[in-house]
Specification:
CATH superfamily: UbiA prenyltransferase
Mean pLDDT: 92
Distance between the termini: 39 Å
Number of strands: 0
């Protein structure tokens, strides 16, 4: 049962839904619990989680040989029959379709397009330099940005801030994971960024993205200060500096000298940590 649940990455799914709830509730000054859920948020969360689950399952299905090489153990999905896997994939598509249908045409197209991209990513595109990374980054961006289609009262700049933050941190983490798994990926014929252009180029790419993101955050936090008064403003600044900006700065410094698999495992966890702390910064609004 535990192995089955691990295919879903339940912690990731939980934080996806939590981020969408935080954005819809805290970034809309007129929002209430009833208005948020009556406005369709529950179906947005269900649709997003269904698409993400589809992505995790189909990626694990196609990555069984690669996981065996990179992790020295069979994938959890390898214990299931093909029919069982197909049943789950069809179920996720059906749930995403129903969620999109109930929300409207824009969301229906978004969910079905996300599923198509996730299929193409798992099948071929993740083996191409940077393209696969950008696809996951784009989907991470839209998982947050789609909130604005539910409520026009949400500050568009704030949604853009958290969407870009999510997308760029995800992009860095995806490239880091490619470097971490370079040996197994190369044996499977993959052509990811570190394989094609080298680990040093991949490190420098991550470094530049992180520097751009840190600069963007500093500008954005200055804009966000208008929402806070007195000591509340300085508590917000302190939280963002200590739990978001400084960890990103540390990652930017560490990536320059990273070379071992353990270095990239640690950096990948640091990126996930920053995503979580970034999500919780929404609670200040």
């Amino acid at each position: 049962m535990v192995a089955y649940l691990k295919i879903y990455r339940p912690l990731n799914l939980f934080f996806m839904g939590l981020a969408q709830f935080f954005c819809a509730y805290y970034l809309d000054q007129y929002a209430s619990i009833n208005s948020v859920f009556n406005g369709g948020l529950i179906w947005l969360i269900i649709g997003t989680v269904s698409c993400a689950s589809f992505g995790y399952w189909i990626n694990d299905y196609y990555d069984q040989e690669r996981d065996l090489r990179n992790k020295n153990r069979p994938s959890h999905i390898a214990k299931l029959s093909i029919i069982n896997v197909y049943f789950h994939l069809i179920l996720f598509i059906f749930i995403a379709f129903i969620s999109g249908f109930l929300l409207g045409t824009w969301f229906l197209v978004l969910f079905l397009f996300s599923i198509l991209l996730l299929f193409l990513y798992s099948w071929k595109l993740k083996d191409l330099p940077i393209i696969g990374n950008l696809i996951i980054s784009l989907l991470s961006f839209y998982s947050i940005y789609s909130i604005i289609m539910l409520s026009s009262a949400v500050d568009g700049f704030l949604i853009l801030h958290f969407s870009v933050f999510s997308g760029l941190v995800t992009l860095c983490r995806e490239i880091i994971k490619d470097i971490e798994d370079i040996s197994g990926d190369r044996e499977c014929g993959s052509r990811t960024l570190p394989i094609v252009f080298g680990i040093k180029t991949a490190n420098n790419t991550i470094y530049l993205i992180l520097l751009f993101l840190i600069s963007l955050l500093i500008f954005s936090y200055y804009y966000q200060s208008q929402y806070f008064q007195g000591s509340h403003k300085y508590v917000f600044y302190t939280y963002c500096l200590v739990f978001v900006v400084l960890p990103l700065y540390k990652a930017a410094i560490d990536i320059r000298s990273a070379s071992k698999k353990s270095d990239y495992t640690r950096l990948s966890l640091l990126m996930k940590y920053v995503i979580f702390t970034g999500i919780f910064s929404i609670l200040f609004f």
